[in-house]
Amino acid sequence: MVNLKIYCTSIKYFNILDKLPAYIKPLGLENYNYPEHWNTEKRGENISHLNKYYGELTGLYWIWKNKLKDLEDTDWIGNCHYRKLWLNNFYDVKQKLSFKSLYSQLLKPENKIFLECDAIQVQPVFLKKETIYQQFDKVHKKDILKNCISFLKNTERENFIKYLNGNELCGLNMFITKVYLFKKYCESLFPWLKLCLDYCIRNDLCKDYNTRLPAFLAERYTSYWFSTHGEKKYLSYARLGKVMLSNNINKIINPTKIPFTFRMYPTIHDY
């Protein structure tokens, strides 16, 4: 069994997150009035003021700056989102489960996958009709990605471009990895992301759907980075629905008997 800590980022308080195993720790983002027992990014070194651009990445920054000093390099650390929880396996079809089923299928420190790799990501999306590069340009705006890539150093720039000309993308900025790789990833990502943010703001690009352009850029970079650093494997995640996130769930004492269902998403899709 490995020493595992997963920080579950959230934009408000959901008491269902209090009912998760102890190694899955809620992490409150922004200025919501969280309970005292929650971790919040406002306590400690943070970039919370950039959340509207970075999304859950401000939580990753907080973990990097505040939660690694007591961990060994070979310990495991990662993140998930309040609506998306890591599962102990991967699945090829959508399913509906009770919370009892979810609780038994959450990723556990005993999973042998931790002995077989250096990092875990959600299973990739395989784009059928276009490359990652082309898809980004179509959804956002042409030349944004090209200009942001130019901020990388020569070798990394070339490797990133090569990756972007493929069609395999691990999205969501969700991953679990060994502490030493987490540090290296953050040391690579955040300086580059700051240059990207400055460029986007300078050119008035962060508005409407593109307000979180830096987070979209990071999604591609994260997928690329872990493809070039060590051995990685994939797992599925469960997505909690609105009923599960309703704080009316306070009335239920035993979380393993919650009668509501939610969809469990496989993460191999064809587009």
Would you mind describing this structure in some detail?
The structure is a single chain. This protein has 271 residues and is α/β, with parallel strands linked by helices. It has one domain (4-265). It contains 8 helices and 13 strands. It has helices at 51-54, 57-66, 99-105, 132-139, 144-149, 154-164, 179-202, 213-227, and strands spanning 4-10, 24-28, 39-40, 76-81, 84-86, 95-98, 119-122, 125-126, 168-169, 175-178, 232-235, 237-239, 261-265. The strands form 3 sheets. The chain has a 7-stranded mixed β-sheet. It has a 4-stranded antiparallel β-sheet with strand order 5-12-13-6. The protein is globular and about 45 Å long. The model is unreliable at 249-271 (pLDDT under 50).
Brief summary:
The protein has 8 helices and 13 strands. The protein is an alpha/beta fold and 271 residues long.
Let me know the number of strands. 13
Low-confidence stretches: 249-271
**Total discrete domains:** 1
Secondary-structure element series: EEEHHEEEHEEHHHEEHHEEE
Q: Could you name the key traits of this structure?
A:
271 residues, alpha/beta, seven-stranded mixed sheet, four-stranded antiparallel sheet, 31% helix, disordered C terminus
Element layout with pairings:
Elements: E1 4-10, E2 24-28, E3 39-40, H1 51-54, H2 57-66, E4 76-81, E5 84-86, E6 95-98, H3 99-105, E7 119-122, E8 125-126, H4 132-139, H5 144-149, H6 154-164, E9 168-169, E10 175-178, H7 179-202, H8 213-227, E11 232-235, E12 237-239, E13 261-265
Parallel strand pairs: 1-2, 1-4, 2-3, 7-11
Antiparallel strand pairs: 4-10, 5-12, 6-13, 7-10, 8-9, 12-13
Helix pairs in contact: 7-8
